[in-house]
Specification:
Shape: globular
CATH topology of the largest domain: Rossmann fold
Number of domains: 2
CATH class of the largest domain: Alpha Beta
Strand content: 5-15%
CATH superfamily of the largest domain: NAD(P)-binding Rossmann-like Domain
Order of helices and strands: EHEHEHEHEHEHHHE
Helix content: 40-55%
C-alpha cells in the first residue's frame, strides 16, 4: 500500500532509539524526510546512519532535548513547517508515589504533557493552512490501564490525553489529524526497566517475572518496535485521514476493557 507520504517532512521527537526511532524508520521507508532528535549526539548519529541505510529519504539529526524550550526551538528551526509531528519523550521513572515531591511531578508533566502541547501549539496552524497534517502522540497503555508504580506517567500522560480530546476535532476538516498511540510492553529499554521495577516490587527474579508476565498476555510476547513504527506510519498516511481524536492501543491485548 502506498501511504502517499513521499516527500513529506516529519519531526520525530526523542528518536535516537526505542519507539521514536522505530517511527522515524517506518516513515523514512515511506519516503518521508525525517528530522530525528535526541540529547546525545553519538546515539543520534548512529540512528541517522541506520535509518539512512534502509531508506532513500533525507534524514536529519538535531541534537535537542524536546523537554526544553531551547530544544523545541532547535527542532523547529531545522524543520519549520513539518507535515508530520510525532511527539515523544522518555517516560518518568517508576516508583512509589510517597517518594515523589513537587519537582518530580513538575518534571513529569513538563516532559510527558507540556512539551507535546507546546510543539502542537507551534505547528498546528501551519498544517491547517497547508491542508495536511498528522500529529501522533506516543503516550502509554497506562492512560487506560494505570500501573501503581507508573504514577508519574499515569498522571502526566492522562493530562495530555485530556488536552488532545479538546483540540483534535476542529482541525479534521482541514485534513489534519491528531491521535494518541498507546504502547503496552514493547521491547525497548523502557520496557525492561518497568519489568525490573515490577519484579523487584514482587521480590521475583526479573527473568522469571517476565516469563510469567508475558505468558498471561493474549499475544504471549512483547511487541516489537518495528510493529509500533508501522502503526505510526499508517496513522500518518492519507488512508488514515478519517481517523482522528483517537487513543489507539498497541498492547498485545493487555487492556481487558470493551472501550
Amino acid at each position: 500500500m502506498d501511504f502517499q507520504l513521499k516527500g513529506k517532512n516529519a519531526i520525530i521527537c526523542a528518536s535516537s532509539k526505542g519507539l521514536g526511532k522505530a517511527c522515524a524508520a517506518a516513515l523514512a521507508q515511506e519516503g518521508v524526510n525525517v528530522w530525528i532528535s535526541a540529547r546525545t549526539a553519538e546515539t543520534l548519529e548512529l540512528a541517522k546512519q541506520e535509518i539512512t541505510a534502509i531508506s532513500d529519504s533525507s534524514v536529519h539529526a538535531v541534537v535537542a532535548d524536546v523537554t526544553t524550550p531551547e530544544g523545541r526551538d532547535a527542532l523547529l528551526a531545522a524543520c519549520p513547517a513539518p507535515d508530520i509531528l510525532v511527539n515523544n519523550a522518555g517516560g518518568p521513572p517508576p516508583g512509589d508515589f510517597r517518594e515523589w515531591g513537587q519537582q518530580e511531578w513538575f518534571d513529569a508533566v513538563n516532559a510527558n504533557m507540556f512539551s507535546a502541547i507546546d510543539m502542537i501549539r507551534r505547528i498546528l496552524d501551519g498544517m491547517v493552512e497547508r491542508k495536511f497534517g498528522r500529529i501522533v502522540n506516543i503516550t502509554s497503555v497506562a492512560v487506560k490501564l494505570p500501573q501503581a508504580e507508573l504514577g508519574l506517567s499515569n498522571g502526566a500522560r492522562a493530562g495530555l490525553t485530556g488536552f488532545i480530546a479538546g483540540i483534535a476535532h476542529e482541525p479534521a476538516q482541514h485534513n489534519v489529524t491528531i491521535n494518541n498511540l498507546l504502547p503496552g510492553f514493547i521491547a525497548t529499554d523502557r520496557m525492561h526497566g518497568v519489568l525490573k521495577a515490577k519484579a523487584d516490587a514482587s521480590g521475583t527474579n526479573v527473568g522469571d517475572f517476565s516469563d510469567g508476565f508475558f505468558n498471561k498476555l493474549p499475544a504471549k510476547r512483547p511487541g516489537q518496535p518495528d510493529e509500533f513504527g508501522a502503526t505510526c506510519a499508517f496513522l500518518c498516511s492519507q488512508q488514515a485521514a478519517y481517523i482522528t481524536a483517537q487513543n489507539i492501543l498497541m498492547d498485545g491485548g493487555l487492556y481487558p476493557g470493551t472501550f
